[in-house]
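Backbone-to-sequence.
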């Protein structure tokens, strides 16, 4: 190997090492959250220059904060993006010093951070006067997410997933932020505006569990409106649905123009599933039918075009990894999320595993997915959030950051 190549390789290893050091801090922030000093929050133009949190689906902070605008995310020095999860008791605090925002841990200054700028389309309105930032939120790395409804039919039966706070979030923020039901036209106009701005090239359409026929017809209407308003037949959309009893509805979504599909099984262990996800266990055919639907979708959409989330940190790690290994073997993307006990969920007050536990899981997950021939581009196209630990590891290993 030439000397020049050795130098470049060494630089790459150093850069990778720095990124992994930063990732450890990000893992802490993802699990333990971050506080922010009043002076620092007041100095941020949240909702003006800086992108604000929009509670279209879930509250991810440690506590609710009606009337207090908080930033959506912030960037660490080497390019990793951390969602802003507010926790006043965190060991980490963002402070203001000489006009700069500094991340501090237990009184020790770590480094400067900056915040995600507010997309231009956030200041626009739909043709019927609704703010576009309430229709589809910018997540990160060219993703937007249209959470079309806060309705979840499991609530009325007392069968909400125990980790989920979608119904509680709707009740908390209904007056200011939540549009209960987004119309296909509203979503089509908002996606077109975000695509035209150049900030996004992928949209996830998702929401609470609703009756199957109503859900499928709605998704078809949304696809039609996005195509009409963007001029794109392939608009790079992910349809996140409940497992349909009629599996041919999966074919209909593919024919309508969705490139990818999401069917979130949530947990791999059936016993955990019965307890933690009572609505899914007793409806939509239960765990076995959810798996059957995912397998069927893999045959329709193809390798790397189906995703199924597992909530990382509720069941034992080896159980989750068995699920990831199986999904990898059939070309399904599975990048477990980092579970935090969110306010309003039945598990509020419980504790997730240590950050190192989640990092280890993420590393093992990426190895399994890459071994199965799934690419980062496929993971990106099928996901609505590129800020997870698995995404970061994938980008670091592939030199994408």
């Amino acid at each position: 190997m030439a000397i020049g190549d050795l130098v470049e390789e060494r630089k790459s290893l150093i850069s990778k090492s720095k990124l992994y050091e930063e990732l450890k801090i990000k893992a802490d922030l993802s699990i333990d959250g971050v506080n922010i000093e009043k002076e620092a929050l007041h100095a941020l133009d949240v909702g003006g220059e800086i992108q604000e949190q929009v509670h279209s689906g879930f509250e991810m902070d440690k506590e609710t904060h009606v009337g207090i605008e908080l930033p959506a995310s912030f960037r660490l020095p080497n390019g990793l993006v951390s969602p802003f999860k507010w926790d006043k008791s965190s060991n980490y605090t963002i402070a203001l010093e000489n006009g700069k925002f500094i991340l501090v841990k237990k009184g020790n200054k770590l480094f400067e951070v900056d915040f995600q700028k507010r997309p231009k389309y956030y200041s626009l309105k739909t043709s019927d006067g609704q703010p576009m930032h309430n229709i589809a939120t910018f997540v990160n790395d060219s993703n937007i997410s249209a959470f079309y409804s806060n309705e979840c039919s499991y609530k009325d039966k007392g069968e909400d997933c125990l980790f989920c706070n979608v119904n509680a979030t709707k009740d908390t923020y209904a007056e200011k932020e939540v549009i209960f039901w987004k119309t296909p036209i509203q979503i089509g106009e908002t996606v077109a505006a975000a695509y035209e701005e150049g900030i996004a090239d992928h949209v996830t359409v998702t929401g609470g569990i609703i009756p199957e026929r109503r859900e499928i017809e709605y998704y078809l209407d949304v696809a039609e409106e996005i195509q009409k308003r963007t001029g794109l037949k392939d608009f790079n959309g992910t349809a996140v649905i409940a497992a349909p009893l009629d599996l041919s509805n999966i074919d209909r979504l593919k024919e309508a123009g969705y490139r990818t599909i999401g069917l979130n099984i949530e947990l791999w262990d059936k016993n955990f599933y019965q307890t933690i996800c009572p609505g899914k266990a007793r409806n939509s055919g239960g765990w076995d039918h959810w798996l059957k639907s995912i397998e069927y979708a893999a045959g329709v959409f193809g390798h790397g075009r189906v995703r199924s989330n597992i909530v990382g940190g509720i069941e034992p790690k080896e159980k989750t990894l068995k699920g990831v290994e199986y999904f990898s073997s059939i070309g399904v993307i599975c990048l477990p999320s980092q579970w935090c006990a969110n306010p309003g969920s039945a598990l509020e007050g419980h504790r997730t595993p240590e950050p190192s536990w989640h990092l280890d899981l993420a590393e093992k997950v990426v190895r399994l997915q890459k071994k199965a021939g799934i690419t980062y581009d496929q993971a990106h196209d099928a996901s609505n959030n590129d800020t997870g630990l698995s995404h970061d590891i994938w980008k670091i290993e592939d030199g994408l950051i």
